[in-house]
Amino acid sequence: MFPVKTGGLKNVAVLLYALLKIWARLALWLYCGKITFRYAGGNAPCILACTHPNSFLDAIVMGAYMPRSLHFLARGDAFRKPRVASLLKGMHMIPIFRLSEGKENLQRNEETFKLSLDVLRRNGCILIFPEGICINENKVRPLKKGTARLSFSAWDDPGLEHLVIQPVSINYSSFTAVPKHIEVVFGEQIKKGDAGHVKELNDLLHNRLVTGMHTPASRKGHSILLALPALLGYITQRWFYVMWRNFARKKTRNTVFYDSVVFCLLMLTYPVFVLAATLLLVWLAGPYGWLALPLLPFTAWAWKEYRLFHTAE
Hints:
Layout: H1 7-31, E1 35-37, E2 46-50, H2 57-65, E3 71-75, H3 82-90, E4 93-96, H4 109-121, E5 125-128, H5 146-155, E6 164-172, E7 182-186, E8 190-191, H6 198-211, H7 227-251, H8 258-285, H9 292-307
Parallel strand pairs: 1-7, 2-5, 2-6, 3-4, 3-5
Antiparallel strand pairs: 6-7, 6-8
């Protein structure tokens, strides 16, 4: 983690990162069907080179399920305010500047490279989307040169000869359906000496990403025991999902952000809804109202499981 000027903010960021990891994983459990994620890459300094089919939901999935602590490259314009920048850096964000944010800012990416190398020197793990663009397809796009350049710079650094590039292919059964299946495929790692120059490394990485791409198969069959709780979940909570779904459709029309926005809206507001509904029932029905606290998420999960085997909206 990078040093920040305000010790209090640093501590808050550490706690917030840990809590968000747990919270995001629980939210994904409710939002998605089966999520396949089998990382066995060890603890060497690592660049996770991921496909980028589904906006910032890709980073959320990786951050929630990756057993190692991740650092993320994030848009440089989010770091303009010092206190916000300190908090973001404490949450493992590294600023990267694009031409659209001003040509004068591009030289600041030298600092990004230095910060990235510092993370790797401490056996850290950096998440990068080498395609540099997001399109809602299970397909690998041409790769930019940044990941390869960072890798060669790291391999030239004393102590980073053991750096590995881990190809990661993220596959979605749908970019609009809820729930959906997600399969994260870890390809064969790339090590120093596997490629001699940037183009060769990009070609090798591209091929290994392509090998891991496919559309996850849907799971078949469901327990009849879920029918009643699923019906209760439908009656009590489907309106809540539909409200945010319609809002997201309107706000993200003709963009790649729909799925990510729906997920984040639900992740942020659903706990508030459950708590508010529970407190209302406690006020109306006394102590029995506290049963809503576990029952509402359970019936939402049951409805999700039941819907897995029907055509999504």
